[in-house]
Amino acid sequence: MTIAIRQIRILDGLGGRLEQGTLVIDGTRIVGAGPDRSIRIPKGAQRIDGRGLTVLPGLIDCHVHFCLGAEADVVAAVEGESSSVTLLKAAELARRTLQAGFTTVRDVGFRDHAVFALKHAITTGLTPGPRIVAAGLAICMPGGHARFIGREADGVAAVRAAVQDQLDAGAEVIKVIASGGVLTPGTSPDDAQMTVEELQAAVEVAAASGRHVAAHAHGATGMKNALRAGVHSIEHATLMDDEAAGMMRRQGVYMVPTLSALATTAACPSGCGIPDSARSKAKNMVKQHEKSFRAAVRRGVPIALGTDAGTPFNYHGDNAQELERMVTLGMTPMDAIMTSTSAAARLLRMSEEIGTIEVGKQADLLFVDGNPLRRIDLLQRPERIAGVMQGGRFVAGPLSRM
Ligand SMILES: [Zn+2]
Q1: Ligand 1 geometric centre to CA of 311 (Å)
Q2: Which ranges carry the Amidohydrolase-related domain (predicted)?
Q3: Where do the domains of the chain lie, and which CATH numbers do they carry?
């Protein structure tokens, strides 16, 4: 089946913009994209009038947790429900994410290996959801942050075994915890966790299977430990210092800011149900996090979008709020879109297939009513999502009913 959309604004995900474009999709792939006059529409193609619409690559969120449902107390929620219930919940959250225009996500920490079953169910068409790159359990030190969705490992040998178990179960990325965190009681975000040797061991074992490592790190020491160990992305990077920023830029390591996570927790009034320890840690760091993000933009640190969706009041399906937060902190709308398309695809090493509108790529596309370069918040308005296409098939929005 061939679909041709005419007179549509095309944002290619690489910074390019075309006001009067034509896009042709055949089967699962993009077969034509360019100015209206230059694109020949094949006979028999279904034609769609794209006037007033903008099309961009399907968005990518590099940091979500499908096992967390944005509950006020996520630790209690996970500990209070069976793993089967978590999996059912995760399927619903994946569906909402896809409907919001996020056609690919990286899940960087799930309570067990069921996330690989979810991925399988989505890939085989059993249930709708984004393409998933999943870590499975996060690797942390004994008593460390994220242990409620992690595997505790003490010493190099234990870390190697834990990483290998994730890989054997189907992990396509390994998540390590290099500092304390906000949501785990008794850990301080500023403290480094896991040793450089342990982090190095994780990178080595992952590399032997061709996999990359994502490191959770708020404090600068934890960030630098992870960077010395050779990880490929720093999640949060909340208290980044100059040295850490310089290392990230030189080593080409991505910052995945997750501004939405700290902001939603910090904005919660007392009595909202978020444990006080988490609320006060977030409140104390939110300004510094914004400063770190601005510094990263200024210094040319590679940035890929991540929301930490699933953390308290940080809802799956609201992922596009992260773009508005980045724009509010000084990033241009075009650059914010690139962090969630081409840059995110590079971090996920999926650039050959997704992340841009180019001939030959998978037709993972988001159609928006209006111009998100003028109003980035359009991306988070369900009534403005005209269509979501995944692998050449409309899966959400009014266009899917044509
Ligand atoms: Zn997270």
Answers
A1: 7
A2: 54-395
A3: 2-57+356-401 (2.30.40.10), 59-319 (3.20.20.140)
